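Ticket reopened. Same input as before:
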Amino acid sequence: MERAEGNVGSPAAVLECRNVGRSFDSYDGGGKNEVLRGMDFEVHENEFLVLFGAGQCGKTTLLNILAGLDMPTEGQVLTRGKKVTGPAPERGMVYQKTSLFPWMTVEDNVGFGPKVQHMPENERQARIKKYLELVGLTGFEKNYPSQLSGGMRQRVGIARAYANQPDIMLMDEPFGHLDAQTRYMMEEELQRIWQKEKRTVIFVTNNIEEALFLADRIILLTNCPTHIKEEYIINMPHPRDYVDPEFLRLRQLITDNMDLTL
Amino acid sequence: MIDNTKDSRFSVKQLIVIYTIISLMSLLAVWELVARFTKASMFLPPASQVLVAFCRSFVEPIGKRTMLAHIGVSLYRVGVAFFFATIAGIALGVGMGYSRLAEAILKPIFEFIRPIPPLAWIPLSILWFGLGDTGKFFIIFLGCFCFITVNTYDGAKNVDPELIGAARMLGANERQVFFEIVLPSSVPYIFAGLQIAVTAGWSAVVGAEMIQSNEGVGWMIVRGMNTGNTVQIMVGIVAIGIVGFILANLTSALERRLCAWNEQKGM
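Engineering reply: fixed in the latest deploy. New output:
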């Protein structure tokens, strides 16, 4: 483990988050509620970046801004040097609640992105097949999401994001709703999938084990207003062992540096 | 629970059918007794007499037509009105639910018209559309239209914003979000509306057929009233009840089929 060099802008960055801040009008109408402050980082080609922070610290707000679903009140987000002005299929999103379309079968969910972008049908079918195979769901094409377990649903969510072959994947606590056992399994699965088909990933979590198991680099966030507290580059080889001494040492180090939440 | 009793000669399904039959038979029995042995007999013909008349009406015409033809005429009127009400209701409901502008413009007008009972429009409908079928379509249309609109509106309002976000992230444009996400996710609501509306429309047919007509189940009742023929009134009522029951079941069967994804929760 070594400290990251400061935030030097890099031409090779897939995504740059430049001094992003976000405030909401507070409910009583008076002041402003500052959620994000001076968020400044970038993510590189095929890097697995984990944004790690406790509880309600604006991680989803940040991810929505990176996605283009929300706009920052300060600063800007650039993808390959171009400013983000709205949602786009170059950025794939995986949600905590999976947000699968419940009236569509598994294959229609996975094929939705290619479909709305008018991909020829045979090509689209090949995509669906490829990514269902990648996430291990071949044979479940005709099932509805409600017929699947939580873990399987999230596999569909991952396949759906992959099917657009996005430049970058944004994952918002995708395993947050799963039970502990399934969660471990899905972390391993995601690692396997990512090794097999590399993508630039920004993964948000509040689980330190998950962060250390997956990340090339971890950005530790503070509580509200959220800003960057520390950056850790994780150089352990994959697959990682949850009880490896180095794993445990990093876990202790990062946890000690974390803000406490209520 | 029923399955666990000692007497397991019947399945739960069979028991439900048996209880349904017992319930209907008891109703008929009470009706028969009341009509035969109380003072109500002056106004209420006995069940047996009505049933016989009902069965005879399939072969012997009432007025110019037999029962099936009357039902057919009424169904045709409800069908046409229901068809237009469905189109208008879904369009208006989805429009108001999805577009703030459409909501601001149309909702007050809609909310004003909604509580007016369809029958209140009969005089105006005669003035506007005359005594032909158009006026009847209009009355039945008003009887079903509001239910479809309100439910569709609810459905379009309640689309999970994250699903819309997900679709946009996957590359869907406004039009695709509307047709691929907003509309299908409103379907269960729309069906709930259609189910109420088909029953309401079928009920409105009596009112609609009060306007000058010489056929249809509603006419049968109005005619019975004018000639003091209580048996004929009851025959009309029974016909309306049975057809309404069938219509409601048909729509829910259709819903189960089209909204399969919504029913399989908890597997």
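Chain B has two domains: 2-44, 49-263. The CA atoms of residues 225 and 257 of chain B lie 41 Å apart. Please confirm and we'll close it.
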